[in-house]
């Protein structure tokens, strides 16, 4: 099968590797679509993803695949099912899994059958990721369906950060993740909701998606604007970009007992933390690796919103490329500015 591989020098290539093996509780899927994650995929390319050192690596994690083969003990998956979050789990032909969903084939597991048979957490064959390998409705739009991976991750982070109705919020960034935070904050009843972005076009996107106020931080004093709206400070400040200086800037915007939630992955893992302008009591929360169990628990809420028409995955997608143009897609995504989600399709 073909797979997108990055080597230790950051060079991308599409290579032939052996198709993945799968276990008795697993299924082989043929990939249908996968989103480019500028938080994970691009950090892996530039060797900036904390703790990941195994190269060459097969990229991709925001995927959807269709079941084509079943393990003998798989009971709750069937051929033709569309399943979220397929992965490559093992080294293949000297290539390590950087989750590997930009491959023609990948693997999912039947977590329900494993749990029923006593093969759940603690069993060496079980992975928490299996909880999040959930079956999608048959009529789902498969092109935009990878956004559901992002939605589950972000919604689980909203719950973990402690979002609550009527709490004030500023979100830094309006890429796919930042826009998801804005949308979910609106649906969860937060407000006022403020977005800090870096272009006038992103101001309009943020306002359309859920922000009550949006500011281009390159052309205004964002601290003054936020303090004008929330004189007592904001209850939540979320970094959806991955820049360490956002943490310090957020300090002087917080209300007492306010929360800074760091979701974006910064290439820098150290900084001088200055809380001289912060209230005496505040929280700093990092969610850089969302719990797959909590993602799975967020699935129904995401799908309910999609069914009701208040959440449309297509609105978060800006570009679609076939797998044969995946390197071109990554070149565009690396430029980044103004983009929403870039989707790769395999059909």
Automatic annotation (TrEMBL):
InterPro entries per record: ADH-like_C, ADH-like_N, ER, GroES-like_sf, NAD(P)-bd_dom_sf, Zn_alcohol_dh
Entry protein name: L-iditol 2-dehydrogenase/aryl-alcohol dehydrogenase
All copies of domain Enoyl reductase (ER), residue ranges: 10-344
Domain of life assignment: Bacteria
Organism listed in the record: Cohnella lupini
Gene Ontology MF annotations: metal ion binding; oxidoreductase activity
SUPFAM superfamilies: GroES-like, NAD(P)-binding Rossmann-fold domains
Keywords for this protein: Metal-binding, Oxidoreductase, Zinc
